[in-house]
Known about the structure:
The protein has 74 residues and is of the alpha+beta class. The chain has helices spanning 5-19, 28-38, 69-73; strands at residues 25-26, 45-53, 58-67. It has 3 helices and 3 strands, in the order H-E-H-E-E-H.
Amino acid sequence: xxxxxxxxxxxxxxxxxxxxxxxxxxxxxxxxxxxxxxxxxxxxxxxxxxxxxxxxxxxxxxxxxxxxxxxxxx
Length: 74
């Protein structure tokens, strides 16, 4: 089996991309909120919006949303 130059270049490009991968940490306070959110007992709709702080390479809380049944009915 012969390797063509374009195949080698493609594999090398993938290697370079993976070596420059940056992983963000998750804010400690957000970790606790996510744990509570995951195991919450309420049956209403809720969401947590997160954003990435590029300077600190940190995932932080942007906003929390919660919809109660009474607010939907009004």
